């Protein structure tokens, strides 16, 4: 019998716990090898940013085609960098949603082919859950319950983690996601794409107190709204043509960070959690990282902030989440579908 025959494997007894993770939900083609959900042996991310930049955002059809070209070399590089062969692996984990349907299908089809060809279990991973596992890649013990602020290009959520794999959505955005707000404001200011890093760079030479932009719903509830802030930026710049772009970027960033940090701190206090964590691309933002860390220290809470490379989309977080799903639920079937609107919990 083949060493890796699916019928030969109990979900609770993987050997070295080596998982190949594959991520293609948006515009990063990524593959990684991670041992037992925390030890990163390799993490390769091929960004398509240059392909999409001239359009000011991700073009789904271009993303799918690029994933198709990049997937095999990216997986091969991840395996070589990790120094592993297919028969060292315990499973192939892949993002199956949420994301762009065409982009998801490329990674999912590739992962199924590899799992079938190599006789390995396939594990479907929720991209949002993967972001939640990113903080665990470099940290040891995670104190629960934990309140996670998940802020990416497509999502802005406060998630209460009571136990591993148990998520309760405390709040979400009513309109734009935080990353989307960064991207739209950066485009309006002519700062380029993706907007988050561009705004952060411009803000370093700006005054965050120059313009008092609104902090929507900062002191009420746990939902977010960023579209009013975006409109306030546009109106301010149209009325004050002479305003320094760096000051607008810094003041906008300060407003976003303020709202995110205030709500995270209030949600943490109200739910009496032991720790807080940041996840998602916007968690790469330095002022947000610093503010959340200092608020948590003042409140005596554990604070997990992933390394920047594990905030934005990557496959190490997919492999980590895949390991935990494999151990708790066992493998997914090869009929696993791509689910563009997949939710957490
Ligand atoms: O998690 P991610 O890589 O992809 C999604 O799943 O959406 O997040 C991408 C988002 C983009 O909107 C990008 O502008 C934002 O994260 N982002 C940042 C920073 N780096 C990336 N936002 C603020 N500051 C940053 N340094
Ligand atoms: Zn993401």
TrEMBL record:
What SUPFAM superfamilies does this protein's entry cite?
Actin-like ATPase domain (SSF53067)
Q: What is its EC number?
A: 2.3.1.234
How the cofactor binds, per note? Binds 1 Fe(2+) ion per subunit.
Record GO cellular component, one term: cytoplasm
Please name the GO terms of the biological process aspect recorded for this protein, alphabetically. tRNA threonylcarbamoyladenosine modification
Q: Which PROSITE patterns match?
A: GLYCOPROTEASE
Q: Which residues bind Fe cation?
A: 127, 131, 313
State where substrate binds.
150-154, 183, 196, 200, 285
Cofactor annotation: Fe(2+)
Q: What is its main location?
A: cytoplasm
Record-level Gene Ontology MF annotations: iron ion binding; tRNA N(6)-L-threonylcarbamoyladenine synthase activity
What catalytic reaction does the record list? Answer: L-threonylcarbamoyladenylate + adenosine(37) in tRNA = N(6)-L-threonylcarbamoyladenosine(37) in tRNA + AMP + H(+)
Keywords, ordered alphabetically:
Acyltransferase, Cytoplasm, Iron, Metal-binding, Transferase, tRNA processing
Give every Gcp-like domain span. Answer: 40-319
What biological function has been recorded for the protein in this entry? Required for the formation of a threonylcarbamoyl group on adenosine at position 37 (t(6)A37) in tRNAs that read codons beginning with adenine. Is involved in the transfer of the threonylcarbamoyl moiety of threonylcarbamoyl-AMP (TC-AMP) to the N6 group of A37, together with TsaE and TsaB. TsaD likely plays a direct catalytic role in this reaction.
Q: Which family does it belong to?
A: Belongs to the KAE1 / TsaD family.
- Annotated protein name in UniProt: tRNA N6-adenosine threonylcarbamoyltransferase
Question: What is the protein's species of origin?
Answer: Candidatus Neomicrothrix parvicella RN1
Instruction: Please name the gene that encodes this protein.
Output: gcp
């Amino acid at each position: 019998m083949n060493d890796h025959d699916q019928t030969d494997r109990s979900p609770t007894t993987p050997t070295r716990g080596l998982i190949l993770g594959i991520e293609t939900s948006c515009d990063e083609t990524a593959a990684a090898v991670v041992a037992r959900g925390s030890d990163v042996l390799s993490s390769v991310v091929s960004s398509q940013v240059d392909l999409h930049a001239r359009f000011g955002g991700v073009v789904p059809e271009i993303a799918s085609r690029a994933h198709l070209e990049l997937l095999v070399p990216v997986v091969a590089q991840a395996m070589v960098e990790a120094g592993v062969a297919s028969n060292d692996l315990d499973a192939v984990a892949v993002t199956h949603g949420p994301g762009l349907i065409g982009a998801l299908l490329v990674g999912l089809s590739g992962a199924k082919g590899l799992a079938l060809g190599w006789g390995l279990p396939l594990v479907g991973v929720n991209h949002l859950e993967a972001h939640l596992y990113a903080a665990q890649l470099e940290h040891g013990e995670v104190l629960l319950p934990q309140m996670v602020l998940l802020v990416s290009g497509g999502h802005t959520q406060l998630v209460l983690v009571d136990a591993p794999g148990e998520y309760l959505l405390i709040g979400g955005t009513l309109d734009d996601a935080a990353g989307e707000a960064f991207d739209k404001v950066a485009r309006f200011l002519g700062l380029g794409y993706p907007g988050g890093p561009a705004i952060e760079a411009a803000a370093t030479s700006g005054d965050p107190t120059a313009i008092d932009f609104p902090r929507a719903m900062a002191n009420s509830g746990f939902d977010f709204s960023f579209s009013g802030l975006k409109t306030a930026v546009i109106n301010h710049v149209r009325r004050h043509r002479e305003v320094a772009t760096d000051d607008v970027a810094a003041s906008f960033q300060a407003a976003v960070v303020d709202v995110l940090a205030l709500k995270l701190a209030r949600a943490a206090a109200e739910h009496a959690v032991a720790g807080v964590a940041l996840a998602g691309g916007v968690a790469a933002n330095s002022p947000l990282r610093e503010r959340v860390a200092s608020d948590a220290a003042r409140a005596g809470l554990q604070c997990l902030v992933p390394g920047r490379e594990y905030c934005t989309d990557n496959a190490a977080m997919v492999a980590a989440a895949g390991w935990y799903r494999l151990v708790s639920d066992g493998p997914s079937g090869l009929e696993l579908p791509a689910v563009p609107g997949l939710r957490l919990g």
